[in-house]
From TrEMBL:
An annotated GO BP: regulation of DNA-templated transcription
Organismal lineage: Bacteria, Bacillati, Bacillota, Bacilli, Bacillales
Domain Sigma-54 factor interaction: 310-517
Key words, A-Z: ATP-binding, Nucleotide-binding, Transcription, Transcription regulation
Membrane-spanning ranges: none
InterPro entries recorded: AAA_lid_NorR, Homeodomain-like_sf, HTH_Fis, P-loop_NTPase, Sig_transdc_resp-reg_PrpR_N, Sigma_54_int
Species of provenance: Ornithinibacillus hominis
Name this protein carries in UniProt: PrpR N-terminal domain-containing protein
Gene Ontology molecular functions: ATP binding; phosphorelay response regulator activity; sequence-specific DNA binding
Amino acid sequence: MKKIKVLAIAPYQGLKDLIDKVAGEMNELEVHTFVGDMLNGVKLVQSKADLDYDFILSRAGTAELIQKITDLPVIDMKLSIIDMMRAIKLAQNYSGRFGIVGFKSITDTANIIGQLNNDDLEIQTLHSIAEIEKAIAHLKANGVSLIVGDVITVRHAKKMGLHSILVTSGRETVMNAFSDIISVNHYLSATKEKTIITENIIRHSNESVLVFNEGKEVIYSSMKENDEISSILVKECASACSNIEDEDDLVIVKSIQQDSYHITRKKLSIVGKTYPTYYLKKLHSPLKPMDKSILYKNSTDSPQVDLDTFTTSNKLFTNVIENARSLAETDTPILLYGEKGTGKDTLAHAIFQRSRYRNKPMVIIDVMYMNDKKWELLFESDNSPFLEEDMTIYIRNLHLLNDEYQLLLESYFSNSFVHKRNRLVFTCDSNYSKAMEQGPFMLYLRNELAVFPLTLPSLNERKEDIPSIVSLFLSEMAPKYSNQILGLKPEALNRLQNFHWTYNLDQLKRAVEELFVLTNDFYVDEDTVKIVLNSITITTPESTNPLIHTNKTLDQLNKEIIEQVLIEENYNQTKAANRLGISRSTLWRKIK
Ligand SMILES: Nc1ncnc2c1ncn2[C@@H]1O[C@H](COP(=O)(O)OP(=O)(O)OP(=O)(O)O)[C@@H](O)[C@H]1O
């Protein structure tokens, strides 16, 4: 068995000899003893710092000073009552007056003995070495000629021409100190063993752990690397410490360079103090963090969209917002319907921000960017977001799901509990294809999941909101442009309100942007609006064209193009057929 290595600092030679003698009888200990008092005891310990000792043994004030400069446990050979009584008995045999001088550890014991024996002892308690001479001089002036104390006091007494008795430690004091060392060592070894095991478990897990104190400093880290990514992660966690007042645990996903990291924060509370503790894990996904098909978004990253800032004078939209407000706090799956650009995506984010799931990221699956490989990842991978818990799973652009994936999704959802573990939100273009509405997944959503449908009115249905939306867009864009626009002239605004908006808010936003570019005045005039409306009627915004997807068959693409043209022509089949260069009957055959 490994011996316990002890460095002992004895205040006088006699105690060194006693310590060595007692240590020789104890098999568990390997003791190296040196003589040193308060003044040189600390220096002795510092000079032997690299010698791998387990404990330091010393006495009274010297032990106290040593503990301040070392992390090793310092065991104090406390003076016992017997040690003190021995010294007092010797002093009482002396014919002259005697006094006791020392630090609290000596004088407390002396006071107890005085009270027990009903003796009126002359006692002077020191608070620093500098007080020794003054204390002895005071006693000397009162007729004291013998001083009882420790090594330093005795040395001063002699210098000042007084007799002295050194309080010595007896065998039982040394024995007690050694038995303290053995029992503390037993406890520390068990704790150390547990700490080493815990450290090894953490090191071999695929998670790193970071613990901060209340001052946001890292007090524990199991991060193996000390590279740029680690320091970014530490900074991310430190900044997340600012929100520690939040009651709930927090989960965020951070993208750094080519990888994503999953960070979970838990609050560790120990004896009234809170230690924000972060568990960090690299996500092993074949997807790049910025891949638009499957994205993790934290509520802190996405623009803060508050349901309370959705202002409207429109009855239909007021209804939608009120329903969204009450639904946000529930677990009910929600299907947001509406034409392109009516604000479905914005509303989905606002619902997420208001829900109880906002402390975890929202997984956004965009059907527009999915392909066979990515669907496979969702259905089969161990890292599939469908295996998450307590998250918001938001599937965008449901109308682009083809029959095959409707069937696969329906079967996956029916056989897994993805909807029981997570909050589901869907968006679907209401103008797209009536046939897809009858697909297996759409029927499953309605009949089995009982999704709550919220239909957002088109901009044409809420024209009364156009003035306030325009002013919102103007102020949103102002920082980008050097000219200052305060608003639109009434005729100009009138034109915008009377226009037929095919792409809703998206299209209005684009128009406002063009107005910004073309206007040099404080107010936009009617002519500029006319020019802009003409130009946006001719061109179709690039971003509004979701048709070109290599994962679709030619038939599907044809069908989608026809549907798009039909929407743009307000379902006028003659106009749509003319634009497509086919007959009305061919058009009819293709869409049936
Ligand atoms: N309540 C709102 N206040 C201000 N701007 C809004 C609001 N709702 C939506 N927008 C803006 O209108 C535009 C279209 O909104 P959004 O992308 O949410 O519509 P969408 O219906 O999801 O579109 P798509 O059908 O193309 O997916 C965006 O630029 C968005 O910022």
